[in-house]
Amino acid sequence: MSLPVDANANANVEQKVVQYENFINDVLRRDLQKVLEQRDLVYEKISQYLQLKNTIQSLQESGSQQLKTDVDLGCNFYVQAEVEDSSRIFVAVGYGFFVEMNHDEALRFIVKKTNQLTAFTEQLTKDSAKIKANIRMVLEGLRELQGLTDLPDSRGRDVL
Predict the structure, then answer these.
(1) What pTM was estimated for this model as a whole?
(2) What is the dihedral of CA 95, 98, 101, 103, to 10 degrees?
(3) Would you state the pLDDT for residue 52?
(4) Reported confidence tier of residue 154, pLDDT bands at 50, 70, 90
């Protein structure tokens, strides 16, 4: 009579293991991937702002109002352009809006925007760490459900 109870208990354990594995793969790993992709996009924006900052600083150092540059027409087609007066530029401020600024205004804006974006990346990094901790916790629960022994800590080493 104990055989059906053990078989039923094993079936319940196996069912729980499958549910936890699905939760890890369908929810936690997907959430982690979304957070990391979002963080990468924010890092890309920071890089673009810093590139603009360097360009503005080089314009200020050269003291020239004229600027020759390559303009992307789309699909990686570039054309050479000449800007007669580069004292005022248009800066992307977000949501598809651009604001005309002089160099000093643009530099102040870039500092504020990169600080804001950096704080956002720090929050995304914390979120990814929480998701990784949740994945690890669920994996530990799975290990206990399956009755596996503790895995040796490969990061540590013997002192003697």
Answers:
(1) 0.75
(2) 80
(3) 93
(4) low
Helix (H) or strand (E) holding 85: none
* Interval 52-85: pLDDT, tens: 999 999 988 988 778 888 888 989 899 999 988 8
Q: Name the amino acid, one letter, at 17.
A: V
The residues spanned by each domain of the chain are 7-146
Determine the Cα–Cα distance for residues 102 and 79; give it in Å rounded to an integer.
Answer: 25
DSSP 26-73: IIIHHHHHHHHHHHHHHHHHHHHHHHHHHHHHHHHHH--S-EEEEEEE
Q: Which fold has domain 7-146?
A: Helix Hairpins (1.10.287)
- Across 84-128, the runs of DSSP E, i.e. the strands, are 88-94, 97-102
Q: What angle do the packed helices 103-146 and 2-23 form, to 10 degrees?
A: 170
Distance, CA of 35 to CA of 40 (rounded, Å): 9
Which contacts of 27-35 are long-range, i.e. CB under 8 A and separated by 24 or more positions? 28/131, 28/134, 28/135, 28/138, 29/135, 31/131, 32/128, 32/131, 32/132, 32/135, 35/124, 35/127, 35/128, 35/131
